[in-house]
Amino acid sequence: xxxxxxxxxxxxxPEDTNDYVLHLPRALNIEEKKYLLAVxxxxxxxxxxxxxxxxxxxxTVKSVDVNCMDSLGRSAIILAIxxxxxxxxxxxxxxxxxxxxxxxxxxxxxxxxxVELLLEHEELLRTNELNQEQPPDAKEIVHSWQRxxxxxxxxxxxxxxxxxxxxxxxxxxxxxxxxxxATLPMPHDVKCGCDDCLRCxxxxxxxxxxxxxxxxxALASPSLIALSSSDPLMTAFQLSWELRELxxxxxxxxVEYLRLRRQVEKFAVDLLQQARTTAELNTILNHDPQExxxxxxxxxxxxxxxxxxxxxxxxSHAHVQQLLAAIWYDxxxxxxxxxxxRRVGIILKTALLFPFYCIxxxxxxxxxxxxxxxxxxxxxxxxxxAYLFFLLILILVSQRAEVEVLxxxxxxxxxxxxxxDLMKQRGSSPSPLECLIVIYVVGxxxxxxxxxxxxxxxxxxxxxxxxxxxxxxxxxVATAILRVAAYMQQTAEIEVDRSxxxxxxxxxxxFDPQLIxxxxxxxxxxxxxxxxxxxxxxxxxxxxxxISLGRMIIDIVxxxxxxxxxxxxxxxxxxxxxxxxxxxEKSKCYSGISDPEWDAASNAxxxxxxxxxxxxxxxxxxxxxxxxxxxxxxELTGIKSYTRFWGLLMFxxxxxINVIVxxxxxxxxxxxxxxxxxxxADTEWKFARTKLWMSYFEEGGxxxxxxxxxxxxxxxxxxxxxxxxxxxxxYSMRRRAREHKHSAVMRALxxxxxxxxxxxxxxxxVTEDDIHELKSSLSSWRCELLDILEKxxxxxxxxxxxxxxxxxxxxxxxxxxxxxxxxxxxxxTGLTDEDNQEELALQQPLEGEDNIARWKRVAxxxxxxxxxxxxxxxxxxxxxxxxx
Length: 884
Known about the structure:
Pfam families: Ank, Ank_2, Ion_trans, TRP_2. It is a multi-pass membrane protein. One of its GO terms (cellular component) is plasma membrane. The protein is mostly helical. Helix content is 64%, strand content 0%. It has helices spanning 30-41, 44-54, 76-82, 86-94, 102-108, 112-131, 161-168, 171-179, 195-203, 205-219, 222-228, 232-249, 254-273, 278-285, 301-308, 312-315, 318-328, 340-363, 368-373, 376-398, 401-409, 412-423, 432-455, 457-462, 465-496, 513-530, 543-591, 604-607, 614-624, 641-679, 681-697, 713-720, 728-762, 768-791, 809-819, 833-842, 851-871.
């Protein structure tokens, strides 16, 4: 169950201490001890005789309570279950011994035969209760395992047989319970705000949290998922993601939830391991229960869900990777087996001829080359080549390639015209290379728009590389807008004054639109170059480094939260301390040579900026981390020695905290992240590579930018109706066939998984419990043999009925505690629960009470209170000095 706080704060009711009564097992008499010992040893004849005497109606005083318990709270039927003595359990149940929570103990011990027997007994009890006449306001039936004292029971009150069987992951017991209609409702969401969750959260939050963990332990059982789910893989994916969210929502139980998540992920991987053919693997990974009526169903839909739910072990499994590799290199068969020279030749050929390939695909998409370009590997090479060409254009623009080419190959007249054009720094139109960049940017925007339309906004935002693409495109669009605005503004100025075109850059305004556009263009180029890191995922050597880099960036972001706080704190202090002297230094800087005290070598025009404002102080401290700020910064005009000392002390403290503490903390965080990635390098890299591969498996998006902005002939054919396909009936039949095949494959995988699990369980080595079970069986057989001999008239007087064998240590310890009335309870600091109830009853006078009865009541009350005072004291020898 889950819960969340309501808008109105609800005060928890005061704790009631009178309704909590602990009923510990009472002391046993000698006959009851013999009775429990006989049950433990498997002495069926003696136990049968004791039960017959206890159930004899002619006996007025019964010396044996057949439902008695030892000091550990174990009744006779529980002792028989722990010994796995089915005959003894059957005898006790038939003779009317109360089962109580014996079913839970049998499930806990994985005693399947006893579970089946107790379930039949429970159904018989329920049938008898239903046949009895019930009042109209009668409550629902209470099961046997619920009729125990919650305070002294071994299991929590919310524990049910199905939950316990699922936690033990016993397939056979779960099958018995599910066949009898046992159900396990899904827990409420952790953020649920229903009345039940709010009541539990305000009344008993510990029980709510414990119950939720117990239920999820059951839901994470591989056997329960295999038995109850028609699509175990989908159930495992969803449950794994839910456990991940619970680990974030409840950090107190994070370790337990993450352990359950790993268990569910392992089940999905083990189920995948049972696939034996490519056909079975295709059926599993291509299943999509929510597919629409498309002619071609979505490829690898189940694998996309695995990536969405971050099932890294499932995605990186050898079966999945082998299938993906076969699809990836479909267009170039045998590529991985080629020599290195031949592979490099294919890549270079594609990189140099990609414009011609794209033009051929535009004109003839169904040709041989057009069909080849639809293959994932060729599509990747085409896109990568187009993007590398875009980066080449950026490099040429940054190096002013047009100017250098004209100077290199032009004549004198061309050079003269070029120099005249360069003098006109304002009002210049974009160059041909810049126009080509604009076309590329339009293609990038169209590509991102199509991805959002096809995959959805949520799926688009899940990929962090899309944020880099979005930032890059936004910066390029902002650059284009500012360049247009600057061109219009400068053109208007030139029309008024022709000399405005010759104004040099150093005389422009600080926030001139063209200067801002150039700054944004430079930032966009950085993001464009960084996008190449995404392509490293394809390489087994660079892929793990790229993943480590991504993890370290997260560490750097977390580190900068602390670093920014320290930086801001010291910047505030230094600015408050030195602002006045920075103003004096500024006045000295702007005074000029007219001031007799002005010194050209004093660097006053540099020092005054260091701490003149809070922003400048933050910048100064930031660059101080790289050694760009020295102690001469504090040699300000008019500064006093005391102020200078405090400034140097603050600066030194900042340097110590920043360089020694925080920098080493960052190094430790990055080293830890790299170690984690290195530990799971293969899994992390294959998962990242799969995400890159999957982006090229989708239909459409064959042409890279900027060729994707040009309309294709098949688009006009579709608009004219030549590509219409009416396949509703065929689709319905194919979908039913796919559903049937998927169901059959999943049943086969589950069957193989269960068979392998049982085989591994049977191959386990013999344990100490198996030896104890064998000893118990021999003891029971010995007692039965002696009983048979005695009934047949043989003389067994000379045979010692006691066992000659030495019992196990666990048995000896239990017998000793049983015979000596050993009780497991805490120290007595007052009256017992029975005495408390008696005292409360004696405080109330009875109706018609005479003097003698009143005197007895008061005397008994005084005895109880004196006992409370006496037992509430500590012995003098164990009292520490100063303890009252």
